[in-house]
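Weekly modeling sync, notes
Attendees: S.R. (lead), two postdocs, one rotation student

Agenda item 3: backlog of single-chain predictions. S.R. asked that every request posted to the team notebook include the full sequence so nobody has to chase files. The rotation student volunteered to paste the first one in as an example of the format we agreed on. Action items at the bottom.

Example entry:
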Amino acid sequence: MKKYLFSALFMGISMAVIPAVPVCFSGKAATEEGKSVHEVTLSEVSLPDNSYSSEPYRVLDISTGKISEVPVRDYVIGAVCAEMPASFEPEALKAQALAAHTYAERQRIRERSEPTEGLGGADFSNDTAKYQGYFDDEKIRHYFGDNYDEYYAKISAAAEEVLPYIITYNDEPIIAAFCSMSAGTTESAENAWGSPVDYLVPVDSSFDKTAPKYEETVSFDKDFLRGRLEKTFDGIQLGDDMTKWLTVAEISDSGTVLTVRAGDMTVKGSDIREALGLRSADFDITCDGDEAVITTRGYGHGVGMSQYGANAMAAAGSSWRDIIEHYYPGCSIDEVKN
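Predicted structure, as returned to the notebook:
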């Protein structure tokens, strides 16, 4: 039997809390707009030698403190239910299931090497501000309502087809990042989070430009904007001329705003996104009287697999393998068995 050893040093994944405003859909049920993976920070961790495990995942319920053992199949199905609309194409759902499974395996291995304080021996919790979304059967039934039988059958069939597989790079489960939709080209992990990852690099995702709410415009009045900027950036000096409060300074090739001149400071575009609850860090800023008008493109951090891009690829005839190979270039889809 073939086993895959997950040893050596490589880039680990940890979840950073993100704001409650709709920057990503973290911590919320999946909607017809899609849902994006949590913001991540990258750090090096040393993992022990482990092969893929069929043992149940250990999930901490943060409301009760109880740790439940969830079979792999049930966890992957529950993750897809929480992370992607059931109305999406079957091949997109399969790609999402594979990403969810890969995420869970990587996280399980990471916890065996460096247990997280507060998890109490669990692999992850149901805190969707820190970990991948997951619905148990009760939540799935509540969420799908009268459509439970139809949607559960669709998602479980998709998950079961890809359950024997994991996405790997150098025989290790990848950082299976995904987002709701990019701005037309996905972003690199280096630009988004500061650390390069060989397979989390920009790829074409032009289909995203046809997604619902791809472009959104929001306005902030002068008093509100001043308050948010002064609260977020301690000691910032704005002055009276609002046109000089926010100026885009540096943009990546994918369209992400990397730095912004904010008053007398230069700050990250992602910090402005968080401070103002923007849908993405791909944005333009203009002033209209006493209002700042910001137009965003895409939804989420833009790294890895675009869910709307995956759905569009599937609708055009692409398989789940095509989708995975497109959004995670250079990675392998490996069958993993005990």
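Discussion: group reviewed the output briefly. Residues 169 and 331 are 5 Å apart (CA to CA).
Action items: rotation student to repeat for the remaining queue; S.R. to check formatting next week.
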